[in-house]
Amino acid sequence: MDITGVVAIISVFGIIPLIVFLVHRHKERQALIEKGMDINLLVGEKKCSTLESLKYGVLLIGLAIGILIGNILDAYTSLNEEVSYFSMIFLFGGLALLVFYGLAKKQEAEK
């Protein structure tokens, strides 16, 4: 599998939005400093880090399961390699986020 194309796509769709975000945030902060306002206005309340950790943990588990199932589909069916991997990665990644949503709602209801 040629990884050059995957790295190029991730770079374009990952690095460019990150640069745009950082430039925009810098301009916002400079404008606040010029107006003499407190920069702490931009910093909101900290979210519960356990929910963030849970979200990323469940997502990564879903992606790993997607890769494994994609490999099984590639080996034992007539599906193309790309189709089997990408479809399963997106399917199980989405399912993992739905599982996280259910767990977060359940935890919120308990409070």
From TrEMBL:
<dbReference type="InterPro" id="IPR046216">
    <property type="entry name" value="DUF6249"/>
</dbReference>
<keyword id="KW-0472">Membrane</keyword>
<keyword id="KW-1133">Transmembrane helix</keyword>
<dbReference type="Pfam" id="PF19762">
    <property type="entry name" value="DUF6249"/>
</dbReference>
<keyword id="KW-0812">Transmembrane</keyword>
<feature type="transmembrane region" description="Helical">
    <location>
        <begin position="6"/>
        <end position="23"/>
    </location>
</feature>
<feature type="transmembrane region" description="Helical">
    <location>
        <begin position="85"/>
        <end position="104"/>
    </location>
</feature>
<feature type="domain" description="DUF6249">
    <location>
        <begin position="7"/>
        <end position="104"/>
    </location>
</feature>
<protein>
    <recommendedName>
        <fullName>DUF6249 domain-containing protein</fullName>
    </recommendedName>
</protein>
<feature type="transmembrane region" description="Helical">
    <location>
        <begin position="56"/>
        <end position="73"/>
    </location>
</feature>
